[in-house]
Specification:
By secondary structure, this protein is α/β, with parallel strands linked by helices. The protein has one domain: Rossmann fold. The chain is built from four helices and six strands; from the N terminus they run E-H-E-H-E-H-E-H-E-E. A six-stranded mixed β-sheet has the order 3-2-4-1-5-6, sandwiched between helices. Helix 1 packs across helix 2 and helix 3 packs across helix 4. The chain starts with a strand and ends in a 10-residue tail after the last strand. This is SixA phosphatase family protein. InterPro entries: His_Pase_superF_clade-1, His_PPase_superfam.
């Protein structure tokens, strides 16, 4: 059994700052949401043993604010920056952990989440996959290389607005 935690980065700052989209940081709400998502992961006892994260500033900052264990293996890769579903699948197939947190962007995260699941959750925000959206899915496989579209079972789905701490 393998578990995927597929998270879209938290809300980013569009106020000007860096010239590059890749260098855009989180805004205040995004920083709060990231911390709240980290709390939610711990409350749900969801402990990734590997992280695959886009190299963009906003995804890396989201990851840091989750406050996961410091010794957790993290791969920052440009391959997940604005990646299409096929690219995301290829990166995931290279994973070695049993519970992998993948942090990426839309529209790739949204489409990948839909395509991975045999049945999508009835959450009203699933199809939009807003910033901070987090899917937890299980796959009946022994190794990530065997991952196929439509094979996942949704265990949970949450968006920051579902979490009281994200709005405080």
């Amino acid at each position: 059994m393998k578990r995927l935690i597929l998270m879209r980065h938290a809300k980013s700052d569009w106020s000007g700052g860096p010239n590059s989209d890749h260098e855009r940081p989180l805004n205040k709400r995004g920083r709060r949401s990231s911390a709240a998502l980290g709390d939610w992961l711990r409350e749900q006892e969801l402990e990734p043993d590997q992280v695959l994260c886009s190299s963009a500033i906003r995804t890396h900052e989201t990851l840091l604010r989750l406050s996961l264990p410091e010794d957790l293996p993290v791969t920052l890769t440009r391959d997940l920056y604005l990646a299409e579903p096929e690219e995301m699948l290829a990166v995931l197939r290279s994973a070695t952990g049993d519970c992998v947190l993948m942090l990426a962007h839309n529209p790739g995260s949204s489409i990948t989440a839909r395509r991975l699941l045999a049945q999508v959750p009835e959450h009203p925000r699933f199809s939009a996959y807003p910033t901070g959206a987090t899917l937890v899915a299980d796959f009946d496989i022994d190794k990530w290389q065997d991952l196929r579209w439509g094979s996942g079972v949704c265990c949970d789905f949450v968006v920051p607005r579902d979490l009281p701490a994200a709005d405080s």
